[in-house]
Amino acid sequence: MKLRKALDKARNTRNTEVEEIPAQTLPEQAGNGWAAPRYTDSIEYMMDPDSVEKNRVVSMNPDANEIERYKILRTRIHQQARN
Predict the structure, then answer these.
(1) How far apart are CA 60 and CA 52, in angstroms?
(2) Contact at 8 Å (CB) between 67 and 58?
(3) In Å, how far are 11, 76, 78, 79 from 82, measured between CA atoms?
(4) Does 56 fall in a domain?
(5) In a domain, 43, yes or no
(6) pLDDT greater at residue 24 or residue 52
(7) Of 43, 45, 53, 56, which has the maximum CB count within 10 A?
(8) How many domains does the chain have?
C-alpha cells in the first residue's frame, strides 16, 4: 500500500513539474557577424596518390580493399546504435 501511494505521488509530481524548454532558433544571419561560407573561395589541394596510399588513406581510393571492411564496421555500428 505504501509503495502504491509513493508511486502515485511520484507520478503526480512528475506530471506537474514539466519544465518548458525554449525552442532553439537559428542565429540571425545579419547583425551578429556570421556569414555563410563561400565555397568558390575554397582552395583546391592535389594530393600525391603514392603518399596517400603509403599512409593508408582509404577514403581517397573507392576501389581499395579496405573500404569493404569499413562498410561492414559502419553497418555494425549503425545496427548496435538502433538497439
Answers:
(1) 8
(2) yes
(3) 29, 10, 6, 5
(4) yes
(5) no
(6) 52
(7) 53
(8) 1
CA–CA separation, 55 and 53 (whole Å): 5
Exposure string over 23-60, b if 16+ CB within 10 A, otherwise e: eeeeeeeeeeeeeeeeeeeeeeeeeeeeeeeeeeeeee
Residue positions counted in the chain: 83
Is 39 part of a structural domain of the chain?
Answer: no
Domain span including residue 81: 49-83
How far from the centroid of its chain's Cα atoms is residue 15's Cα? 31
pLDDT tens, position by position, 4-51: 888 888 888 776 655 666 666 655 555 567 777 777 777 888 888 888
Give 27's contacts (C-beta < 8 A, 6+ positions apart).
Answer: 34
Among 74, 72, 40, 47, smallest CA distance to 82 is for 74
